[in-house]
Amino acid sequence: MQHTSATPIAWPESIEHGQSPSLAVWKFASCDGCQLSLLDCEDELMAVAGRVAISYFPEATTAMVDGPYDVSLVEGSITTEHDAARILDIRRQSRLLVTIGACATAGGIQALRNGRDVDGFTSIVYAHPEYITTLATSTPIADHVRVDLELRGCPIDRGQLLQTLAALLNRHALRLPTTSVCIECKARQTSCVMVAHGTPCLGPVTQAGCGALCPSFHRGCYGCFGPMESPNVPALRTQLGLLGLAGVDIDRLLNTFNTTAFAELEQTQIDERAPS
Does the domain at residues 4-176 carry the CATH identifier 3.40.50.700? Predict the structure, then answer.
């Protein structure tokens, strides 16, 4: 059985009065995949659109309504000074702020540059690096403002997004999975790819939510949904080593969509186990 956690949320007061809540969707450094997940809801989105006032969503409409907004969905990470200032303004305009996707919740793929020579990267990638202004790090939205709810994934799961909107409209607690992808594999009777095939997999330390999509196609989990509630990253490292992976290969496996989240978690666990 999939374990979930009920997340009580102080939904905006306007919903209590029978009004349609206003929704804004914002983009920072990202690939747009999470916004596309919202558009991919198709028929369900039409039903939601009838009960939610979509006030700002450049990906979907040119109609723009000034805030404040009852709910803001924010995709992408903070990578420039302009981003850092802009998210403060969005927070001021938003009664409820929900981050969507690995970029917004953990810094995303672009966080691979953190702690590295950013000037070196820009000189290689861009013909005129002198025109590029960027921060040295890519950071999640929560590093800059208060976040009311996080929806993880790369991209997010549209089912979870619809559940969130339904919880908003009906003013009830939202239930999101807190266990690992392994539980989802068991639920759909998918054989463990690590045990059956020796395939490296991050499923034991990754939060459920994708329906064990990759293992169902005999591929290892890539960690799209970030760390689960109580993962044991050092133990997984040991197991991956037994499969024949060198330390650098394990680092590469962990350093993808949620690189900063896994790195910070692993360092904390190592520090906790170190003799005092």
Answer: yes
Each residue's pLDDT tens digit, 99-108: 999 999 999 9
By the 8 A CB rule, do 51 and 83 touch? Answer: no
What's the rounded Cα separation, in Å, for the pair 248 and 270? 18
Q: What is the pTM of this model?
A: 0.89
Query: Residue written as tokens 């976040």?
Result: 147
C-beta atoms surrounding 142 within 10 Å? 14
Distances from the Cα of 75 to the Cαs of 18, 125, 267, in angstroms? Answer: 28, 24, 27
Q: At what angle do helices 259-273 and 233-242 cross, to 10 degrees?
A: 100
Distance CA(209)–CA(227), nearest Å, equals: 12
**How many other C-beta atoms are found inside a 10 Å radius of the C-beta of residue 138?**
28
Which amino acid makes up residue 5? Answer: S
For 198-230, what is each residue's pLDDT tens digit?
Answer: 999 999 999 999 999 999 999 999 999 999 988
**Tokens 């190592």 correspond to what residue?**
270
> In the chain, where does the domain assigned CATH 3.40.50.700 lie?
4-176
